[in-house]
Amino acid sequence: MSAIVHLAIPAGDLDRTVKFYTDVLGCTLGNGEAGRWVDVDFWGNELTLHQSEERLPTVRHDVDMGAVLVPHFGIHLSQDDFDAVKDRIAEAGLNYIDEPYRRFEGDKYEQETFFIADPNQNVLEIKSMVNPHVLFDKD
After folding, report:
1. Distance of alpha carbon 8 from alpha carbon 86, whole angstroms
2. Rounded to whole angstroms, how far apart are CA atoms 54 and 45?
3. Cβ-Cβ contacts under 8 Å for 53 (sequence gap 6 or more)
4. Which residues span the domain enclosing 130?
5. 139, part of any domain
6. Helix/strand/coil for 99
7. Does residue 90 lie within any of the structural domains?
8. Is residue 121 part of a domain?
9. CA-to-CA distance for 26 and 41, rounded, in angstroms?
10. For residue 129, what are the β-bridge partners?
11. What is the CA radius of gyration of the chain?
12. Under a CB-based contact definition with an 8 Å cutoff, are residues 20 and 118 in contact?
């Protein structure tokens, strides 16, 4: 078995949030307990959504592209998958927190990224790397 990240987050209204992850992001569901929690196949990682009333507090931190919301989590996608997610966001009429933006242009870390919130205001960063093989390359 490969290394798979597991992340559990408060989902607010579980049914509403599940629709965001399945209909908008295109994820599939795994194990769960009706009305309490469900596992989402988040591109090969296990994201567990828990029915809840609370939301995670967020603050903005300065980085090269501006002030980003923390905490956030996300995924690196192929350009085709990234574009498909953007298309589904547009079809659903959803707004970005931070519009798609290209970072590190001309650099080996060049990427397109955007931030969006799920229905419980959990912040996601979705990105596509031009050269994904250099992600942890220090040279």
Report:
1. 24
2. 23
3. 12
4. 6-134
5. no
6. strand
7. yes
8. yes
9. 10
10. 111
11. 15
12. yes
Place of tokens 């205001």: 121
Burial class (CB in 10 A: 0-12, 13-18, 19+), 40: buried
Token pair listed for 101? 């933006």
Identify whether 32 is part of a domain.
yes
Domain count, the chain: 1
Kindly report the pTM of this predicted structure.
Answer: 0.90
The CATH number assigned to the domain holding 87 equals 3.10.180.10
On the question of pLDDT at 2 being above 80, the answer is: no
* pLDDT of amino acid 1: 55
Q: Classify 20 as helix, strand or coil.
A: helix
Q: How many CB atoms lie within 10 A of CB 39?
A: 16
Whether the per-residue pLDDT at 33 is higher than 90: the answer is: yes
User: Mean pLDDT over residues 86-99, rounded?
Assistant: 96
